[in-house]
Amino acid sequence: MDFKDYYQLMGVARDASQDEIKRAYRKLARKYHPDVSKEENAEERFKEVQEAYEVLKDPEKRAAYDQLGQNWRQGQDFRPPPDWGQDFEFSRGPSGTEDGRFSEFFSSLFGEESPFARAGQRGGGFRAAGRDHYARVQIALEDAYQGGSHTIELTAPELTPDGHVIARPRTLRVTIPKGVVEGQQIRLSGQGSPGLGGGPAGDLYLEIGFRPHPRYTVEGRDVTAVVPVAPWEAALGAKIEVPTLGGPVEVRIPAGARAGQRLRLKGRGLPGAVPGDQFVELKVVLPPADTPAARALYERMRDEIEFDPRAGIGS
Fold first, then answer.
1. Shortest CA distance to 24 belongs to which of 14, 34, 11?
2. Residue range(s) defining the domain that contains residue 103
3. Taking the mean position of all CA atoms in its chain, how far away is CA 117?
4. Domain closes at, from 212, 247, 279
5. For residue 314, is it within any domain?
6. From the CA atom positions of the chain, what is the Rg in Å?
7. CB-based contacts of 88: which residues, under 8 Å, 6+ apart?
8. From CA 14, how far away is CA 67, in angstroms rounded?
9. CA 246 to CA 268: how far, in whole Å?
């Protein structure tokens, strides 16, 4: 996918004010409107200008777009990272994203799966509740297991009085419920936009994700750890100590265990009304043949044990 430089399409500087962007849009819309323009490719240019303006006119979309474009280089294939909206605080949903007017690039950023799509809105009247805000955050798996109070740092796009967009840092102290799972939302009452005319402030919704873990993978409340075992432990059986979120436990490896075999530790996953389980996935690890004694042992096994690891897979 090609990266679209919306500032270049609009002919404005990256630090242009919102008024400058609006004036540029009006000028280009008149120039390329397909009903009156005689310019070559007027309809296509008009669509590009509309798409660029849809992003740059909105401080939140613009701030997120600016963050994404920081590391892009001309000629690179552009793919937005799956966590591109991480720790960004948004307050409004997408507009005009469902009628097919915009490019694949736009849809990949601001379509139905973007953070904008799930941001709440409240409306209308002189006395009105403030907008609900939305942010995706990542926490350590151990914090989800234990729960407790943690510091969350967010970035909130803000429009300055002179019409420029800045990213404002925000630090919150949040209580993480014990056993929270990925995708679960935590509601912080009154932490959204202030209300109008004495109306109540909106709320802030934090959607929880887990940081990548060096040992565990997670599915719902279940966790899986890959645990290495020696060939003789798998062949003969053994008792070994394995890590869990609640601390190490002793597990019995059955004789004749296979690589990839999963052992279940009931209730050792994330806590909840029905606790998750932990699965121990066995990984058989061979000792290196890096000494004469080790090589001799492997040669003896080759000569004395009748074993064909490729039996049954065809000629």
1. 11
2. 75-212
3. 15
4. 212
5. no
6. 28
7. 60, 63, 64, 67, 115, 135, 136, 154, 155, 156, 157
8. 12
9. 7
Residue 64 counted as domain residue: no
Chain Cα centroid distance, residue 270? 20
Query: What is the count of structural domains for the chain?
Result: 3
3-state SS, residue 288:
coil
Question: Which alpha helices (DSSP H) does the chain contain, by range?
Answer: 6-10, 18-32, 42-56, 59-69, 104-110, 141-146, 231-236, 292-304
**Count of alpha carbons within 13 Å of 188, Cβ hemisphere only?**
17
- Asked which of 70-74, 166-170, 277-281 is least confident by mean pLDDT, the reply is 70-74
A 10 A CB-CB count for 86 gives 16
Nearest CA among 156, 41, 53 for reference residue 96: 53
pLDDT averaged over every residue in the chain: 85
In this structure, the answer to whether residues 203 and 254 fall within a common structural domain is no
Q: Are residues 197 and 224 in the same domain?
A: no
Do the beta carbons of residue 137 and residue 208 sit within 8 Å?
yes
- Tell me which amino acid residue 90 is: F
- Please write the tens of the pLDDT for every residue from 67-91: 776 655 555 566 666 666 677 777 7
Domain membership flag for residue 70: no
Question: Which SS3 state, helix, strand or coil, does residue 176 take?
Answer: strand
Tell me the whole-structure pTM to 2 decimals: 0.69
pLDDT above 70 (res 93): no
42-56 helix and 59-69 helix, angle to the nearest 10 degrees: 100
Query: pLDDT tens, 216-244?
Result: 999 999 999 999 999 999 999 999 999 99
Q: Give the pair of three-digit tokens for residue 169.
A: 């840092």
Residue 309 included in any domain: no
Place of tokens 């690890």: 285
